[in-house]
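F.,

This is the one I mentioned.
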């Protein structure tokens, strides 16, 4: 030690600038800005009003004023699902917050990362049944990854930052931040970055090596493997890694409703969508397989049919970032907890090593599957009532728009036809409410997707029933220059419910007629309604006019476009597996089922 250093006086730590003092409301806005948020969807009210004042001054945040809080929630979902970013919705207390519940539940079921910020009554009034009070934290506890109640202004930055961390990591999902009005109005030093303390929240991303090796050995030895691909592949942005593994193994691929676009439809190894309305090759591939490699899928009842009869001869490798999903429905011989983006790379390498010693032979399996593809191609029957085929309309929307488009669907027949007859070549191009089955999802989700991806053509493919639940967001689109395209598949009824009434209730159409289509009162008249909202409105009743209407919509980018496609009410979704039976009972069309080996 030198004499100079021995006698040096210790220097005081460098002075840091004093933390600015902000109100809790200002802290909300500043936190969002520092987290890189650029767009939020919301509707003000008394308990969230303090946040809306500084929001007006923000140059970094674009706030889009929706017409209903459910629209804000679905718009945040569409934004997130199209862009892989975290969506944000803002609402006031009481009914404002409870109007978000449907969208929150939807996001929870489909693993969509959104943060919902709600105002709450003054903390000293909580529990007194104050005006517009609702225990939104308690209400949403079962349908969020986490809910925060913030009562102090100094806790705002940490809660907002933690909400984004939780929503966007591990298995994505919705997070609620409920902030009392006094916490919004009071002041505190704004400290950034805040300390985030999340005890117990440690998502596992790197899988155990021995499990990867075991999965690779099973895959190399399998005679009838299937890659059963769920929405987790899209959420983990692992489509390229999935394709690499598929091409390495040569195994057939099926993509669930939530995974459409995770693997290109044009790829020769793709068998299509499995499940209740899946393709015959996809449904029977799972049923006849000796090995399922489940990738970010949750063995949903709409895929498995009667779970005890699903894939009876198959061993299961189940890969998921959420350990709670593994073994929940079907026991897995090889459970793997980890992020699919990493797991698929490791599994590809391990398979190559395993296949070097065990020569895989799945030629006979492919011969069987190709025979199914030849015998049971996806198709539809023309209606006999002279009205348009909805499948044709939807197919042309997909073909004329192309794979770079984004397609958001409501729930019901049009959802299934959109999943079947539009060809998806890339992830994040198909948005729908898969788990919750939420009518009214399409228009606000398309709005959110268009905000996130302004250079893409974005369609809401909706039913005449779904459209009437959230069509008020067309006003939001018109005023905010969000030129989405809306295709109403107007069969004048609650189509999927009507199909079930046809098949299972002897054609007793109890309360499913909506009087919007051909030969009815047309209440509402969708063309007049759309024009009232400032949209370009078109009605199409003949197939020869379909292409021109779609092309007009695609060429119109100065306002939203609504096309009322008047279609047959008799069209049905096929193939179909009736609820509660084995998938082996898949019907290709009415009174037409494939021959198969029956179970005992």
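My design for it:
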């Amino acid at each position: 030690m030198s004499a100079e250093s021995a006698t040096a006086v210790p220097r005081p730590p460098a002075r840091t600038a004093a933390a600015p003092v902000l109100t809790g409301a200002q802290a909300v806005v500043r936190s969002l800005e520092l987290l890189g948020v650029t767009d939020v969807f919301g509707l003000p009210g008394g308990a969230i009003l303090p946040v809306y004042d500084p929001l007006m001054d923000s140059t970094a945040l674009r706030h889009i004023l929706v017409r209903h809080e459910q629209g804000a929630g679905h718009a945040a979902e569409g934004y997130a699902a199209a862009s892989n970013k975290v969506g944000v919705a803002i609402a006031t207390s009481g009914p404002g917050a409870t109007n978000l519940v449907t969208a929150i539940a939807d996001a929870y079921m489909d693993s969509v990362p959104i943060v919902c910020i709600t105002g709450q009554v003054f903390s000293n009034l909580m529990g007194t049944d104050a005006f517009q009070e609702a225990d939104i934290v308690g209400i949403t506890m079962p349908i969020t990854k986490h809910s925060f109640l913030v009562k102090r202004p100094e806790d705002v930055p940490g809660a907002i930052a933690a909400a984004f961390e939780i929503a966007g990591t591990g298995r994505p999902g919705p997070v609620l931040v409920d902030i009392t009005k006094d916490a919004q109005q009071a002041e505190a030093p704004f400290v950034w970055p805040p300390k985030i303390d999340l005890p117990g929240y440690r998502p596992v991303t790197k899988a155990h090596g021995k499990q990867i090796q075991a999965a690779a050995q099973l895959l190399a030895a399998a005679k009838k493997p299937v890659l059963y691909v769920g929405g987790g592949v899209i959420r983990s942005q692992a489509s390229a890694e999935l394709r690499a593994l598929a091409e390495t193994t040569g195994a057939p691929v099926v993509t669930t409703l939530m995974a459409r676009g995770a693997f290109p439809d044009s790829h020769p190894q793709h068998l299509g969508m499995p499940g209740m309305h899946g393709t015959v090759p996809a449904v029977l591939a799972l049923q006849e397989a000796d090995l399922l490699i489940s990738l970010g899928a949750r063995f949903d009842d709409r895929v498995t049919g009667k779970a005890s009869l699903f894939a009876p001869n198959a061993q299961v490798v189940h890969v998921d970032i959420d350990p709670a999903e593994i073994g929940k429905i079907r026991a897995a011989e090889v459970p793997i907890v980890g992020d699919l983006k990493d797991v698929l790379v490791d599994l590809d390498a391990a398979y190559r090593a395993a296949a070097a010693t065990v020569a895989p032979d799945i030629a006979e399996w492919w011969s069987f599957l190709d025979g199914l593809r030849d015998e049971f191609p996806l198709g539809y029957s023309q209606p006999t009532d002279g009205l348009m085929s909805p499948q044709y309309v939807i197919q042309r929307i997909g073909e004329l728009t192309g794979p770079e488009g984004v397609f958001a669907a409501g729930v019901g027949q049009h959802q299934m036809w959109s999943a079947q007859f539009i060809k998806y070549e890339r992830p994040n191009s198909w948005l729908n409410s898969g788990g919750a089955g939420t009518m009214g999802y399409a228009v606000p989700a398309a709005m959110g997707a268009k905000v996130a991806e302004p250079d893409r053509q974005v369609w809401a493919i909706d039913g005449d029933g779904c459209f009437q639940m959230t069509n008020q967001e067309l006003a939001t689109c018109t005023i905010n220059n969000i030129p989405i395209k809306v295709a109403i598949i107007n069969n004048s009824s609650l189509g999927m419910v009507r199909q079930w009434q046809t098949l299972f209730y002897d054609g007793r159409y109890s309360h499913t007629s909506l009087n919007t289509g051909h030969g009815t009162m047309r209440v509402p008249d969708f063309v007049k309604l759309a024009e009232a909202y400032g949209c370009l409105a078109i009605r199409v009743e003949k197939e020869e006019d379909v292409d021109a209407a779609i092309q007009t919509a695609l060429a119109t980018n100065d306002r939203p476009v609504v096309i009322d496609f008047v279609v047959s009410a008799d069209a049905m979704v096929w193939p179909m597996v009736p609820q509660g039976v084995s998938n082996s009972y898949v019907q290709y069309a009415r009174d037409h089922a494939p021959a198969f080996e029956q179970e005992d």
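Confidence is low (pLDDT under 50) at residues 1-10, 596-600.

Talk soon.
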